[in-house]
Amino acid sequence: MRIIIVGAGLAGLSTAISLANSPTKHDILLLESASALAEIGAGIQLTPVATREFLRWGLGDALLAASALPKSWTLRRGSDGSVLNRVDLSAFKEEYGAPYVVIHRADLHRILHARAVELGVEFGLQSKVVDYGFEEGWLQLENGQRTEADVVIACDGINSSARSLLMRHLGHSDQEWLEATGWAAYRAMAPVNDVKADSSTAEIVREHAGNCWADDQKSLMTYMVQGSRNLNLVFSHRDNVNTSDWTQAELHEEFKRMASDMDPRVRRLVDMVDSPINNWPVFQVKTLPNWVSNSGRFVLIGDAAHAMAFYLSMGVSLAVEDATALASALEQHTSDADSITLSTAVKKFEEARKPRVELIRDASLHAGTMLHLPPGRDRVVRDEAALKDGFIPMVEGGLGSRELLVGPNLGYKATIEVVI
Ligand SMILES: Cc1cc2nc3c(=O)[nH]c(=O)nc-3n(C[C@H](O)[C@H](O)[C@H](O)COP(=O)(O)OP(=O)(O)OC[C@H]3O[C@@H](n4cnc5c(N)ncnc54)[C@H](O)[C@@H]3O)c2cc1C
Ligand SMILES: *[C@@H]1O[C@H](CO)[C@@H](O)[C@H](O)[C@H]1NC(C)=O
Ligand SMILES: *[C@@H]1O[C@H](CO)[C@@H](O)[C@H](O)[C@H]1NC(C)=O
């Protein structure tokens, strides 16, 4: 088939690779609006769901060379840093068949891009898509050029224009499909050498490990990135300040103010920040009625279909699952087109993926709520559960239950089949 993918982010590249690895040979074109392929941003955590697939794609060596493998994840009380729960991540490889890694976003993008090129995927840069023929299978670029395909797969990210156009095409009321979660995150870096040199914080970077201080309406997550040169800090807070006019000095002041009633180690870490601070309001995509068109010639995936709060770090894992599941659905169609029409195949993909992704989206936001509980009964229950049971599965455990414990995506057992 001739397949056009829109958006060369981590979802688009993963989809291109998955399809290029299919038994059926496809003609794949990846269109990207930017004039150069590049990923900005900082570190991302990858669960075994994603790394397992990267290993299958033969990217193990490249991935591991650029990654750090955190040994543990520790959940701490925000006020004094006392340990509520520690998860041994080094056991993940045995348990889930692939490691839990932290990698710089740009490195992962580079590795996936190189493989897609090797597999013969064609790239079109400076190709902003502005319109789609959802049932017929065409798209139109900003310069007016129209291109046809058997299937168009849009992975144009959280602010997807394909999403709004698809919803309008399917007759759903004209509304904003993106919603604020009420949370935001300041992101910054501190030099690991400084953290090491201070006896009160040295422990934080003695080995590769994730730490999270859960506090009243805020939390701080840290892990090392960039060849262990920097400690990545994600300071989550209520999205009730508009920082767009703030100077860096004001942002640094706010960082210090937030840390002022927390564990002394947090106060020291915040003092060591030497990078610019960015504030990211956290948005999620509401439940969409559909991700696919009636004819099956159009499919929406990745953040465009299901951006979510980052508290379970599942964004990339779900994009990779989407890619694998969609390639598998399309293979069912191409290998037996008489009994499985294109429309049937992509609808099976949607049926398999939507409920799972919506569950994880809700669990991600719930994890944020649990991390940021104010003092009170709920927090006592949370802390007791954390101390007693270690960690409780996030996604497969009863969603919404009081005891549901936070632990960055750590409860996720990959028992729900990716393939359909
Ligand atoms: C603060 C923060 C922390 C996060 N931490 C983690 C983490 O630890 N682990 C994790 O797994 N996930 C994390 N995520 C989520 C993760 O970043 C996303 O889920 C993932 O990168 C989504 O990839 P995507 O390809 O769907 O979208 P994007 O990466 O946004 O890619 C979309 C691409 O489409 C292009 N595009 C857009 N419109 C058009 C158009 N009209 N025509 C052509 N091209 C177009 C864009 O230029 C872009 O290249 C985090 C997110 C945030 C905000
Ligand atoms: C999406 O749009 C919002 C609001 O306009 C903006 O703040 C945010 O940076 C955009 N995100 C991306 C990834 O482009
Ligand atoms: C934040 O403030 C800027 C500048 O004052 C303004 O342009 C922007 O719309 C505001 N954003 C929100 C979400 O209110």
Automatic annotation (TrEMBL):
One of its GO terms (molecular function) is monooxygenase activity. PANTHER family: HYDROXYLASE, PUTATIVE-RELATED, MONOOXYGENASE. InterPro entries: FAD-bd (IPR002938), FAD-dep_Monooxygenase_BioMet (IPR050493), FAD/NAD-bd_sf (IPR036188). Belongs to the paxM FAD-dependent monooxygenase family. SUPFAM superfamilies: FAD-linked reductases, C-terminal domain (SSF54373), FAD/NAD(P)-binding domain (SSF51905). Pfam families: FAD_binding_3. Residues 3-347 form the FAD-binding domain. This is FAD/NAD(P)-binding domain-containing protein. It comes from Polyplosphaeria fusca. Residues 1-16 form the signal peptide.
